[in-house]
Write a structure and sequence with these properties.
globular, 127 residues, mainly alpha
C-alpha cells in the first residue's frame, strides 16, 4: 500500500507542476497566489511520495506520511470548491458519482498516509 500511495502522490505532484491549469480552476477564490500554491502543493506531493517510498529510514517515512496526511486535510477546501463548481454547471460536471466518493475518500487518504508512514497502526496492528 505504501508504494501505491507514493506512486499516486508522485503522479499527482508531477501533474501539479506539468499541467497546473485544472488545479488552478478548482482553487477557491480566497486562496492567495494560487499559481504559487499549486506549484508548492506539487512539490509537497513529490517530497511526501519520495519520503514514503524510500526504504532506509522509518523516521523519514513517518515524516512523509504525516506531511501527506496534513496535505490531504489542507487541500480539502479545493475539493469542496470543485464539487460546488461542478454541481453549478448546466451539465453537472463530473457528477455526484465522482464527487461523493471523493469526499468520503479524503479521510481515508489521511488515514492511509498515516498508516503507510508508520504513524498509526490502527486497525491493523503491526507485529
Amino acid at each position: 500500500m505504501r508504494w501505491i500511495l507514493a506512486a499516486f502522490y508522485a503522479v499527482a505532484g508531477y501533474l501539479h507542476l506539468a499541467a497546473p491549469e485544472p488545479f488552478l480552476q478548482i482553487m477557491p477564490g480566497w486562496v492567495w497566489q494560487s499559481d504559487a500554491m499549486v506549484f508548492w502543493t506539487g512539490i509537497a506531493e513529490l517530497l511526501g511520495a519520495a519520503a514514503l517510498a524510500q526504504p532506509w529510514s522509518q523516521r523519514l517515512r513517518h515524516a512523509g506520511g504525516t506531511g501527506l496526511a496534513l496535505y490531504a486535510i489542507l487541500v480539502f477546501p479545493a475539493n469542496i470548491n470543485h464539487f460546488a463548481l461542478d454541481m453549478a454547471r448546466t451539465d453537472g460536471g463530473l457528477g455526484l458519482f465522482y464527487h461523493i466518493p471523493r469526499m468520503f475518500a479524503q479521510p481515508l487518504l489521511v488515514w492511509l498516509a498515516l498508516w503507510t508512514g508508520g504513524v498509526v497502526d490502527w486497525p491493523f496492528r503491526r507485529r
